[in-house]
Amino acid sequence: MELFIVLVICLSFLIFLFLWNQWHAKGKLPPGPTPLPIVGNILQINTKNVSKSLSKLAEDYGPVFTLYFGMKPTVVVHGYEAVKQVLIDQSEEFSGRGSLPVADKINQGLGIIFSNGEIWKQTRRFSLMVLRNMGMGKRTIEHRIQEEALCLVEALKKTNGSPCDPTFLLSYAPCNVICSIIFRNRFEYSDENFLALAKYVDENAKIVSTPWIELYNAFPSLLHYLPGSHNTLFKNMTEQRKFILEKIKEHQESLDLNNPQDFIDYFLIKMEKEKHNKQSEFTLDNLITTLWDVLTAGIETTSITLRYGLLLLLKHPEVTGSITDDGQDEIPVRNWQATLMTFLLFICLEDKIVFKNMATHLICFSLSQGTTILTSLTSVLHDGKEFPNPEQFDPGHFLDKSGNFKKSDYFMAFSAGKRVCAGEGLARMELFLLLVSILQHFTLKPLIDPKNIDTTPLLKGLGSVPHFYEVCFIPV
To answer: Across the strands, what pairs with 459?
Structure first.
């Protein structure tokens, strides 16, 4: 009985707190659907496809509206003009990352992706410098990708044209490319540590795209202590940190201060130079988290895009023909560009980015400092006016009437502004070279009629994950 009374008191307090917070914020936030106490607007959102729910709400409330994920108000920015204002026009005011509990738990405010303030500025600036030194955007990294593409081709040949699930095979190449940048060396595809690393990245990508993680981010204090896939995510992170720390220790033993060979070496040298600076952002913990950020981002997005891209080509064999016709010299290059960008347009890998407002105006609304902003990239990438029939896979979105390649300001697959993906150039080069290598050496054979292939996302939360499928790689 006493426990029941305590629960009633706690629940009443939470409801009072929610109602007071909503009243206090009234007039400072854009309008939106009326939230329920405690749960907010969660019941009004399809957690299996949040983007679709946001689009429907935008029809009623316009490009800027407020949602409550639990008791936390979030201003949603929907559509090209509003997203452009946040990411580009006022990029400085909206450069801070908003709180994402699952990421906060993992990264602890460190690294390059979910950090803020001085630690973000210094880590990002340093990481971009190192990546350029390691060949990003240069011929050296292109050769490295081409060498790894040959290894991938050999691995695919070993399937002997039999049906296979390409999930892990397609992750090995981008995994080795990024490993060669941060660890100095590539791994054999049979290496146990390498296979475990690829497994963790794939499993984490699926977990963060589930409705459960959406709920975890809304109610972290409650769900953190309950059974659920978030525990698997945190366990995987712990194992990955162990792997990364072992590599760092190996580098510490062989470090040549005058001859850095990879990302870890550069960071360790920076740590040594600033060892007497108590305010330095270059610490061992930040190195571990930064490596995890670079490793995960470098593997996950590229491997999922490759897997999703092959699925789309299986569904649309006519597109494959337009980019592999040996009888043409220039058109396939244009079509390749258009096809790759359409992959990213269709998939919308990074859909919702959370920012923290630093006191400014947004459209017609004045927002107080610290307001959480959620930008919907899908609303830009799937804009029906810029890309007619955006739900259809059509490379023609990036070709003009003469068949020439055309750019679009709406293409924000890698985000935009100050928080644009640091590895965009590397990802584009990898996707092009790896897909070209696959299609030069193999014919893709689906196991079912292309008409019956499902290209809708299996999971669409923080990212998009395709349905499981098998394919035969028939040597040309």
So the answer is: 465
The pLDDT > 70 percentage for the chain reads 88
What is the pLDDT at residue 246? 95
CA dihedral sign, ordered 224, 229, 233, 235: positive
The per-residue b/e assignment along 192-227, b for 16 or more CB within 10 angstroms, e otherwise, is eebbebbebbbebbbbbbbbbbbbbbbbbeebeeee
CA distance 161 to 112: 41
Length of the chain in terms of residues written = 476
Q: How many domains does the chain have?
A: 1
Cα separation of 62 and 377, whole Å?
16
Identify whether 467 is part of a domain.
yes
Q: Tell me the mean pLDDT in the region 379-394.
A: 90
Structure token digits, residue 214: 């959406």
Both tokens of 56, joined, read 């429907």
What band does 20 get if pLDDT is binned at 50, 70 and 90?
A: very low
Cα torsion through 138, 270, 420, 232, rounded to 10: 110
Residue whose structure tokens are 């196991």: 447
Classify residue 83: in a domain, yes or no: no
Mean pLDDT of the chain: 87
pLDDT band, very low/low/confident/very high, at 96 (cuts 50, 70, 90)? confident
What's the CA gap between 345 and 431, in Å, rounded?
A: 14
* Both structure tokens of 341: 């960008």
Which domain, by its residues, includes 328?
A: 46-62+94-347+424-475
Residue 267 has which token pair? 């960071």
Domain for residue 8, yes or no?
no
Residue 6 has pLDDT above 50, yes or no: no
Structure-model confidence comparison of residues 21 and 80, the more confident one: 80
Domain membership of residue 365 (yes or no) is no
421 is in an annotated binding site: yes
CA 23 to chain centroid: 35
**Which residues, 6 or more positions from 368, have their beta carbon under 8 angstroms from its beta carbon?**
28, 357, 359
CB within 8 Å of 330: residues ≥ 6 apart: none
Phi, psi (deg, nearest 5) at residue 389: 50, 60
How many beta carbons lie within 10 A of that of residue 273, not counting itself?
A: 12
pLDDT in tens, 361-379: 666 677 777 788 889 999 9
Give residue 229's Cα distance to chain centre: 19
Are the C-beta atoms of residues 292 and 111 closer than 8 Å to each other?
Answer: yes
Q: What is the CATH number of the domain that holds 434?
A: 1.10.630.10
- pLDDT at residue 364 in the model: 62
